[in-house]
Every structure is written in structure tokens, then in C-alpha cells.
Fold this sequence. Notes:
By secondary structure, the chain is mainly alpha-helical.
Amino acid sequence: MNRSLEHQALADPAALAPVEAPTCGRAAAAVASAPARPRARKSRWPARLDMLQSASGLFLALFLVAHMFFVSSILISHDTFYTVARFFEAGWLFGTPQPWVVSCVVGAVLAVFVLHAWLAMRKFPASFRQYKVFAAHKAQLRHSDTGLWWIQLWTGFALFFLGTVHLYGMLTQPAAIGPYESADRIWTGSLWPLYLLLLFMVELHGSIGLYRLALKWGWLEGRDPAAGRRRLRIVKTGFSLFFLGLGLVTLLAYVQLGIAHADRAGEPYVPGATPGEAASGVQAALSLGRR
Length: 291
């Protein structure tokens, strides 16, 4: 008997299904007889985009660290900064400096910058109602890391404008990078307020971003997550203070050089030459070219 029931079940599983009560109606019978639908597979794209956002943010943060050390070479000497600027024009590769190489590098960084901003905007409040919900949630939760994310959101919003202006200038004027050229742009070109705001926004955004990346991927976590979080906060604070201090000192050096060079604004820097000699050399070259 049991064997015949098993064969019947294999041949027609619906034959052994429990009989529905008459009170269930036609709707219940239709549900019972409907074939089971396969569970929809969740998309992996949100995770992939999140990974891409982390990778682009890490690339930009490392680039900013390197960029800060490059521009702060002015604190060593004018010739040192001039050598660094010419190095990125690949004169060591092509024989003569090629400013278009700088434009290519800046263009690539700008593309990653826009991509990172677009990926980050997925998590921004999309309406005033969402903003109010998040603000109420943040006030009720009183979580320090949530507050850091809020700071990162607004600094990122500011960087989308401040950073784009700076990158566009470097993209379109790659040859105007040097001790006198950069100082004239900052002081005579009245860009020092923009660079001052940019310094604070980029250092806060970058340090918080690296801190949140380390938490997200478990870097420096150790055996005790709470102790690891405290260590990361100390590292984040030290990172911010160091690069803010270095950036302010570097910006002050460019401002002082721009003030001293204001009466000769536009004069390019020539290593090993006094300002008067550099100007006369440029004028001589121009006069020979006109002849």
C-alpha cells in the first residue's frame, strides 16, 4: 500500500496534496494549484558599485597625499619645486618637457573624481523629506560615525565645485606650474581664498573617507574592534592635523612669494637666475623669435 502511494506521488504529486476545505473558495484552490515561482535573484550591482566607490575614493586619497608632498616641495627650495614640476612633464622621457603629459594625468584624475562623486551621490538624501528623516535619525542616534558621514557628505558637495575649478585650471594651463607661476596664480590671480577652502574641505573629506574605509574593510581592526576603532580615530586625527598644518604652511609660502613677485607677475621662473636676469632672458628670446 505504501509502495503504491509512493509511485502515485512520483507520478502525480498533486494527487497526494491535502484537500482544501469547501469554505476556502476558488481563490484558495487557485493558489494551491499555482506552480511555485522561483525566488528572484538579487542584483549584485549595488555591491559592485559600492566596491568601485571605495576603490576610486582610495585612489583619490592616495593621490591627494602624494600631491600635497609635491606642492610642499616649495618649502625646500624654489629649484626643488621647479624640478618636481618639470619631472611630471616627462622631459626625462621625451628629451624636452611636454606639458600635455600633465594634462593627461589631470584629465584621468578628473575622470575618477567625477566617477567617485557620481557613485557617492547614490547615498545622498534625494529629497527634502529624506533629508529630514536622516537629520531626525542622526539627532536621535547620536552616533559619532554617523556625524562623520554627515561631514563627509557636505565636504564632498563643496569639493565637487572647488576641486573642479582647480583641476580645470591645471588641465587647461599645464605649463603654468612653477614657483613664480603658481605663486602668481594664487596671489595675483586672487585664488588664495579658493585654495584655503579647498585645503580644509579636501583634508577633512579625505581623512574621514580613509577612516570609514578602514572600518568598512576591517583594516587595523585587531582582536578588539572597539580598541581598533579608537586607534583609527587617533590615526585619522593625526592625519588631518599633519596635512592641514603642512597645507597651511605651504599655502603661506606661495602667498609670500606671490606678494614679493607681484610687480613682476607673469615672469616665469628660471633656475639659478635672479628675477631681473630671468626677465631679460625671456625678453631676449622673444625678440629673437620676432626677428
